[in-house]
């Protein structure tokens, strides 16, 4: 039994292997992971908000394609979408970013997240009270003005905690871009750890990567939960005062 514990420790928590890969994880992998997650989130937020406005539109010709867009991106496996965008577009001659694999990776994750963020935004936009919308229209506002000045400010504010929670999923989703074969300077946490684990025939580098992911995601998860509780209390307080 003691020998088994030692073997487990050497396989998953070898301090030599962890110490060997950790500097590269911190110097290269961590910044690339965070940057990739931020760029992908910006793409997802912009596209998601536009699609959500289409989903909230009463016009069928606008709402239907937005619904198809969301259903496809949410229904396809993430790994397949990353392959289609990251490898399929260049093979099809649509070299949008030349040989910049990093940009294709950010676009692929951003498109995936736009489908989920669109539903988050849609829920926020549709949560705005109907009375406020009717009041703005009675004041002479057009549909676009109502969306810009009444619905968007309130709806976006209400979905900030869920969007922050979605960013946590984006960070974890960056692990899939290793499939696209990033260059040594572009590699994120998982690809660096995977290469080290294969070369050393040891899983300790992957455990080191797991530790970094936990250090990134666990504090953010608690912050999002606290933020949601605080907004819930503020919402109930506002309702009771009204």
Q: How do the strands and helices of this protein lay out in sequence?
A:
Layout: H1 2-12, H2 15-55, H3 60-75, H4 78-91, H5 101-126, H6 130-138, H7 143-158, H8 160-173, H9 189-200, H10 204-241
Membrane topology: Multi-pass membrane protein
Main location: membrane
Domain ABC transmembrane type-1: 30-224
Tell me what the structure shows:
With 242 residues, the chain is mainly α. The protein has one domain (2-241): MetI-like (MetI-like fold). Helix content is 81%, strand content 0%. It contains 10 helices and no strands. It has helices spanning 2-12, 15-55, 60-75, 78-91, 101-126, 130-138, 143-158, 160-173, 189-200, 204-241. The longest helix has 41 residues, at 15-55. Residues 236-242 have low confidence and may be disordered.
Shape: elongated
Please describe the biggest sheet, giving its number of strands, its sense, and whether it closes into a barrel: none
Number of helices: 10
- Which series of helices and strands comes N to C? HHHHHHHHHH
Alpha carbon gap, first and last residue: 66 Å
- Radius of gyration computed on alpha carbons: 22 Å
Contiguous uncertain segments of 5+ residues: 236-242
Structural class: mainly alpha
The CATH topology name reads MetI-like fold
User: How many domain regions?
Assistant: 1
Mean model confidence by pLDDT: 84
Could you name the CATH homologous superfamily? MetI-like
């Amino acid at each position: 039994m003691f020998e088994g514990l030692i073997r487990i420790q050497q396989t998953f928590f070898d301090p030599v292997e962890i110490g060997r890969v950790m500097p590269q994880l911190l110097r290269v992998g961590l910044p690339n992971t965070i940057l990739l997650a931020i760029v992908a989130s910006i793409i997802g937020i912009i596209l998601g908000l536009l699609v959500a406005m289409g989903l909230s539109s009463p016009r069928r010709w606008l709402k239907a394609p937005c619904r198809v867009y969301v259903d496809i991106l949410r229904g396809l496996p993430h790994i397949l979408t990353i392959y289609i965008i990251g490898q399929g577009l260049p093979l099809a001659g649509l070299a949008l970013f030349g040989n910049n694999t990093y940009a294709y990776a950010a676009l692929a994750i951003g498109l995936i997240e736009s489908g989920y963020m669109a539903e988050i935004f849609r829920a926020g936009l549709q949560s705005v009270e109907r009375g406020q919308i009717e009041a703005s229209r009675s004041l002479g506002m057009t549909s676009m003005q109502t969306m810009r000045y009444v619905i968007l400010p309130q709806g976006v504010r209400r979905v900030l905690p869920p969007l922050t929670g979605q960013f946590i999923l984006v960070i974890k989703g960056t692990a899939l871009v290793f499939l696209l074969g990033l260059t040594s300077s572009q590699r994120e946490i998982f690809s660096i750890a995977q290469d080290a684990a294969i070369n050393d025939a040891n899983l300790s580098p992957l455990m080191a990567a797991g530790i970094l992911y936990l250090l990134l995601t666990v504090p953010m998860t608690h912050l999002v939960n606290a933020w949601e509780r605080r907004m819930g209390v503020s919402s109930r307080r506002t309702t009771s005062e009204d």
